């Protein structure tokens, strides 16, 4: 299940299940979105991206969905593995900015074997 | 692929001293680099955008005299935390645009502890 509170939201799933991580972005002028995975003590690792003129993009085991109407982004991970355990962040790039990325709050994914 | 090297990975310094963190693009030229700060169990907060040959653009609330950014070459940007205090202890991460419109690469981060 998913919990939200003072700490980082956590999503716990069973190994082999599919995971869905959600993100609400703030600016309707954002033109590019990226999902990152971050393991403890390391920098963000690129997972998948999507441009604002698309609503879905698929990778090897991951899918990103973009709903511009409600400013919502989701990351779906198929057949979640223990190695997927990490914190996941969405990032948006605002059109007209210097190309900087603004990060969402993050979700901690915990995969139970 | 594009690689960004960040150094040091970990540093401990005394209050009042200054610490310099380096961010290098190893196999590409980065006209724009970004510096982020991350507290435990929190997200990455953009501190500043660094452009080669010009002054950095700081986000609201970030003291430019405390966090000095220099981007003197196309492959190196530095962040200097001046007169460090314990509340500056954090994880600092740099990122560089790879030259394509959609390319961003992140460094591995620097854990700063001020004692």
Distance between the termini of chain B: 37 Å
Q: Write down the overall mean pLDDT of chain A.
A: 91
Low-confidence stretches of chain B: none
Strand content of chain B: over 45%
Total of DSSP H or I helical runs spanning 4+ residues of chain A = 0
Biggest interface and which pair forms it?
Answer: A-B, 23 and 24 residues
Which structural class best describes the helix and strand composition of chain A?
mainly beta
Please tell me the overall pLDDT of chain B: 94
Describe this structure in words.
The complex is a heterodimer of chains A (113) and B (115). By secondary structure, chain A is an all-beta fold. In chain A, 0% of the residues lie in helices and 55% in strands. Chain A is built from no helices and eleven strands. Chain A has strands spanning 2-3, 10-14, 19-24, 30-38, 45-51, 56-58, 62-67, 72-77, 86-94, 101-103, 107-112. In chain A, strand 1 (2-3) and strand 2 (10-14) form a beta hairpin. Chain A starts with a strand and ends with a strand. Chain B is built from no helices and eleven strands. Chain B is globular. Chain B is mainly beta.
What's the short version?
The complex is a heterodimer of chains A (about 110) and B (about 120). Chain A is mainly beta and about 110 residues long.
């Amino acid at each position: 299940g998913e919990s939200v509170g003072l700490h980082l939201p956590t999503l716990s799933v069973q190994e082999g299940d599919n995971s869905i991580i959600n993100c609400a972005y703030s600016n309707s002028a954002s033109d590019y979105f990226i999902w990152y995975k971050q393991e403890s003590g390391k920098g963000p690792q690129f997972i998948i991206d999507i441009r604002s003129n698309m609503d879905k993009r698929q990778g090897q085991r991951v899918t990103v969905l973009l709903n511009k109407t409600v400013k919502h982004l989701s990351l779906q991970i198929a057949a979640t593995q223990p190695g997927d355990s990490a914190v996941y962040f969405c990032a948006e790039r605002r059109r007209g900015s210097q190309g900087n990325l603004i990060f969402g709050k993050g979700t901690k994914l915990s995969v139970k074997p | 692929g594009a690689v960004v090297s960040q150094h040091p990975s970990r540093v401990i310094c005394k209050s009042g001293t200054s610490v310099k963190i380096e961010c290098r693009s190893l196999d590409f030229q980065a006209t724009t680099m970004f510096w982020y700060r991350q507290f435990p169990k929190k997200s990455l907060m953009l501190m500043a955008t660094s452009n080669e040959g010009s002054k950095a653009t700081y986000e609201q609330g970030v003291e430019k005299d405390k966090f000095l950014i220099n981007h003197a070459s196309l492959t190196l940007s530095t962040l200097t935390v001046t007169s460090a205090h314990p509340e500056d202890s954090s994880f600092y991460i740099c990122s560089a645009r790879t030259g394509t419109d959609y390319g961003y690469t992140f460094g591995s981060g620097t854990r700063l502890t001020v004692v």
